[in-house]
Specification:
3-stranded antiparallel β-sheet, 9-stranded mixed β-sheet, 10 helices
Length: about 300
């Protein structure tokens, strides 16, 4: 039996905590995953996993192997990928993670543009507003907005996102436009609970920061949903500019408090520390950096 398959089965099972989850990550059967791990234990003449009816845990030998095996497998994958890509172009699967709204509005289109030049690549795009565990979920590359606090990840800044305050013209005609952030206390504000401080909207003017404490009837965990509610004249939204540019152009939304600066932060590509990136991942990151710079 192939020791590489055995190692992959062990790493997937150890990281996910079960043979079932490990099998799903590898795309093979539960029975085959268990068999691979048993063969590896037999080969090494030592037990690597402590099995219970509900989950598996690591023995000391398993902990030592898990600390070393992923880097070895990454190096092997990178070597084989680079050799294959050198002769045939970019091939294989790229697993990408991104926030939901940013993924729908931008990343899907960017991957479409990249895919046209690389017809032998396959893409697995997973949209989730939580910061997924790249190692546990088998993610090659994640696009994130804001500062990453995970020390095990390497980051390449691609650009900067900006935020705008917007409402539908009918809402403004009926309720008036706020002149200062303090005026927002008298407005229906659509709260995006994905933000770190959803009820505190930040503004800056002449170097001074102003915090608006907001409230409203609608609390949503999606920037896209907040924007659609604002476009339906249900209130004021504090939204990423990349997601509202079309509505601003058509007049479906109008900007408010334009004399104030609002939240901004990095758009970044992140990947696991301590691994050699396959050429296809490096090429995608370079393409994304150029693509982001070309945005309006």
């Amino acid at each position: 039996m192939d020791i590489i398959d055995e190692l992959r089965a062990f790493v997937a099972t150890a990281r996910t905590g079960s043979f079932t989850a490990g099998a799903e990550q590898l795309g093979i059967s539960n029975r085959l995953t268990s068999k691979y791990v048993a063969e590896l234990e037999s080969r090494l003449s030592t037990r690597l996993l402590q099995r219970t009816t509900r989950k598996v845990g690591l023995t000391p030998a398993g902990e030592d192997l898990l600390a070393r095996a992923p880097a070895l497998l990454d190096e092997l994958d990178a070597l084989l990928s680079n050799v294959a890509e050198g002769s045939r172009g970019l091939t294989g699967v790229i697993r990408v993670s991104a926030p939901v709204t940013f993924g729908e509005v931008y990343v899907a289109g960017m991957l479409t543009r990249f895919a046209r030049a690389h017809p032998d690549l396959t893409f697995d795009l997973r949209l989730d507003d939580r910061f997924v565990d790249l190692a546990a979920d088998g993610i090659d590359l994640a696009f994130r907005m804001g500062v990453s606090e995970t020390l095990s990840l390497k980051t390449r800044k691609l650009g900067t996102f900006h935020t705008s305050l917007v409402a539908h013209p009918d809402y403004v005609n009926k309720h008036g436009a706020p002149r200062t952030p303090d005026d927002l206390s008298r407005h229906a504000c659509i709260v995006d609970t994905n933000r770190r401080q959803p009820h505190r909207w930040r503004f800056r003017k002449d170097g001074a920061e102003v915090i608006a404490q907001v409230r409203g009837r609608f609390h949503v965990n999606s920037a896209r949903a907040a924007i659609e509610l604002a476009a339906a004249s249900m209130g004021v939204a504090y939204a990423p500019r990349f997601a509202i540019s079309d509505m601003l152009e058509t007049g479906r939304l109008v900007p408010l408090l334009e004399n104030f600066d609002m939240d901004e932060g990095p758009i970044a590509a992140v990947y696991l520390e301590g691994r050699t990136l396959p050429r296809k991942i490096r090429t995608l990151i370079d393409f994304a950096a150029d693509d982001v710079r070309a945005l309006p």
